[in-house]
Structures are given as C-alpha cells and as structure tokens.
Amino acid sequence: MNPQKSHFWKVFLLLLAIIGVNVLSYNFFGRFDLTADKRYTLSEASEEIISKAEAPVIIDVFLEGEFPPEFRKLQAETRQLLEEFAAVNPQITYRFTNPLEEGGNANEIASQFYEMGMTPARINVVENGRTSEAIVFPWAMANFGNKSVAIPLLKNQLGATTEDRVAASVQQLEYAFADAFSKLLEPKRKKVAVMRGNGELEDKYIADFIRKIQEYYFIAPFTLDSVAVNPQRTLNQLSEYDLLIEAKPTEPYTEAEKLVLDQYLMNGGKQLWLVEHAAMETDSLFTPAGSAFALPRDLNLGDYFFKYGLRINPALVKDLYSAPIILATGSGNNAQFNPYPWFYFPLSSSPSTHPVVTNLEAVKFEYANPIDTLQNDIDKTVLLATSPRSAVAGLPREISLEEITAEPNPAEFTAGEQPLAVLLEGNFSSVYDNRILPFQLNNFRSKSEGTKILVISDGDVIKNQLQRGEPLELGFDRYTGTTYGNREFLLNAVNYLLDDRGLINIRSREVKIAFLNPEKAEKERTFWQMFNIALPLGLLAVFAVLYRAIRRKKYVK
C-alpha cells in the first residue's frame, strides 16, 4: 500500500475514534466512587428529594478563603458533595464565596450572619509556632424561588478538637443538604399536635422547638378538655394528627383521657412523651434557705406506660458527667455568674448507632428519672442514658445548694447506666384490653398496627431559656455560652417518628476522615518543601539524560 495513503487512513481512523469517544461520553455519563466508605455515593433518599427540583436551586457556600487544614478538608468535602448533587440534577448550582473578601469589618459581618441565624465560628490558627484567632463562616444558604434555608456545615461538640468537629461535620454533610432540599422542595404533609390541658410547659418555653419543626410539619395545639363532654369526637379529631407531643405535663390524667390517648396509639398515631415523675425546679433553690424538697409526682400514667413496656421510677438520677449549675455572686453591676458541679443535671451522650442519636452532641437533662424497661413483645431501644458513674436518689428528698461544696463520694456513683430516653416500636396492646372502659367507643381496638412511642423522663429537655422574655435556641445556655444537643436530638426524634422516606437514615453513614498531624507537619515542613521542589526537578533531569542517551544511541547507528 502507498505509504502516503496508509498515513492518511491512520489519521482518519484516529479522528474517527476521537469523535466516537466524545459521542459516547456525551450520551453515556458515569461517575465512579472508589472510596471504601462510599462517601461520594448519594443515598436513594437524597436523589429522590433533589429529583423534584424542576427550577434552579442556588446554593451559596460561605466557606471560602484562607483556612487551617481542617477547614480546607471541610471545604473540599462540601465541594465534592455538591458536585454529586449537581451531577444527579443539573438544576442544583452552587458557588463558594468569602464574606470577608471585599475587606469589610469582620465583626460587623459576623453580627449580620448572627442576626440571620448563622453563628460564625471563632477558631485558633497555629502557624509557625504562633497562635491567632480567625473568624470562619461554616454555613451555606440554599435558595429556591422565594424561599431560603440556612445549612450548618460545622457541628458543635463539647470539648472536641477542631479535627473531631470537622470529622463529625463531614459525616453529616449529606444529611444537612438533603434536609435543606427537603424543606425547599417538599410540601408539608404531616400534622403534629402539641398537647394542652394537663399543665404542660407554656408556649414561650417550647417556642424554639415548635418554630423549628414548623419548617417540616403542620403544628397545632390540642386539648383533652372536651373528653369530659364528647370523648368520641375528641378521639376522632386527635386521630387527624400523625404525632402528638406531651411536653412536661404536671396534672394527672383521667381514665377517659388515657383511653383517648390509648386508642389514638391503637389507630397508628405516634407519641412523644417528655414526662417526669418528680416535682423539682431549680428556681425553688434560690431562697434564703438555699434548699427545696423534690417530691414524687403522680400523673396517673403508671399503668399506661407499664402496659407498653416501661416504668418511670419516682426517683432522681445523679451523674458525675453533668452540666453545671450557675450561681450569682455579688449584686447589681458587680454580679458574677459562676458555674458549679451539679450532679442533678446529667449530660447524656450515646454510643448507639441509631439514626436519632448518631453523631449527636450531649443532651442536657434536669432532675431526670430512671426508666426501667419491661419484658413484652415491643422492640425497645435505649437512645440516651446516664454515664456508668451515676447514682439513683429516692424521693422525697431535700436538695440543697450546699451539695456543690461537698466532695463526691465515688462509692455512691455505682448505679451504672440509667435509661433516660427509650424508643418503643411495634404492635402495642391496649391498656384497656379486658378492662371496663371509662366510656363507650364505636370501634375499640385492643391491638395497634405498627407504630412508635418515644418516652423521655425529663420535660426540661424541650425547654428553652429566655432572655428579656424572648426564647433562645433550645439547648443554648446563655450563662455559659454552651450549646447542648437537645434541639438536634428532639428534631431527629420527631423526624424519625414521622419519616417514611428514610431521610433520617442518612445520619447513620460512617465517613472516615484522615488529617495531617499538625506537630509532625510543622516539624517536617522544610523537608517536604524541599522534597516537592527537588523531586520534580530530579525526575526531569533523569528524563533528559535518558532521552539524550536514547537519541544518541539511535542516530549513532
């Protein structure tokens, strides 16, 4: 064959192959996740949610600028995750911006973010042996139409290092974004009843949590007062709700009210109880005597919970791992607020892999009761418990502020882990099965369909603090500046009780993040800088020598 024609056909076939590869790559797009933990593979729940975006969803990520290595890792993981979202649905677009890029006042910009509910993070930056403070804005804002949702990228963790916080945050990135997309793209469907009429917490003390779950569900107050007049109608109205929340009731329930609640459960309704069998408030200690009596509280619910598989004991738990009590010294402008150990405020964190408590900050309890689980056919999961170094104090009991000065006796704190929050799941038997009913029902059910109850033995878990009469974020202690995991725990709980999409299961994903050792990196910094400069130059020199030798050998022949 003519050499010129042969060369022509080679070029033609090469061009044909290039065109074919481009056509195939354009029509058949694929991404491959080669990580061991499949961190870049979106869950089915996430893909299902974002598939509903038929108009642009614009995400502004404020994680841009000069960061320590840990935050660069968070930035890179966030960017990679958003690439995955955009690959599934091109309507997802994003941009990284630096709020401080134009040289604005950092404190003023931080105040603006705080007013929008996006609290900046102040971090210590160690460089060349010197420590400085920097402001970081670990937030994103998702915009869809005229709606916007703030997305936290950095988790709070008590006593955790920056590396630990970033590692925990990376594990929750997909959940954080999928949760935001859910708020933007999915209409509210389910209804939550906030129970009233039995001495529950006032609205101002549950305002922050109610405001939070309103982003997901329809919320309405509901009272059982009408049970005395028309119990059947009350049950029918309550059955229109998917979940009821009982937030620290203080008045006993009548048998008729309990039957309505029981039959609501038998018909598939979910229940979240924050109930305590001890009457004790911290405010009662702030008297000249500095002490108060903790007394048993009977709500007439013993048989109700016993039938379902648990018992709330009329006792108080004390825990060496606890939150402080804040006491004021001095007066007027000279007043100082100082923290003191207070073992009646257990801090509960769980090693459980259950999605409600995975990667959760410690939850603060106040004067909580121990829970016993009983043997029956219901599945029981202890979501939160005390630490192994706990004690159980019987009631009635005098509690005095003088206890803060007493050295704890380790021999006293040997009660082991005491359950404080227990999840019950399954087909429940009615409390009133084979019993005389307090009133006649049209369709009494002795067995429920599959449903769930979460019982928390402390009503203050849902109680937010006030500042100048305004509710603060649930879990935030305005005296210490500490944020506990109460709001996240309860929000996860409500989502789990009502979630039928599996979104909450994204929280269970395990992502392992590797970080550089900062001390070793600083010590070996010069070596690796020289290595990165010398190695490419050395390889280039070796290549040049070999290339010259090959050419000389070829042309000498």
Task: Furnish the topology, listing elements before pairings.
Blueprint: H1 3-27, H2 44-50, E1 57-61, H3 69-88, E2 92-96, H4 106-115, E3 121-127, E4 130-136, E5 139-144, E6 147-152, H5 162-171, H6 173-185, E7 191-196, H7 207-213, E8 218-223, H8 231-238, E9 243-247, H9 255-266, E10 270-274, E11 278-279, E12 291-296, H10 302-308, E13 310-312, E14 315-319, E15 322-329, E16 336-348, E17 363-364, E18 371-373, E19 379-385, E20 390-394, E21 397-400, E22 419-426, E23 451-456, E24 466-467, E25 470-471, H11 486-498, H12 518-523, H13 525-556
Parallel strand pairs: 1-2, 7-8, 7-9, 9-10, 10-23
Antiparallel strand pairs: 1-5, 3-4, 5-6, 11-12, 12-21, 13-18, 14-20, 15-16, 16-17, 19-22, 22-23, 24-25
Overview features:
557 residues, alpha+beta, seven-stranded mixed beta sheet, 31% helix, DUF7088, membrane, transmembrane, Motility-assoc_ABC-rel_GldG
Structural account:
Strand 3 (121-127) and strand 4 form a beta hairpin. The mean pLDDT is 86. This protein has 13 helices and 25 strands. It has 557 residues and is α+β, with helices and mostly antiparallel strands. Keywords: Membrane, Transmembrane, Transmembrane helix.
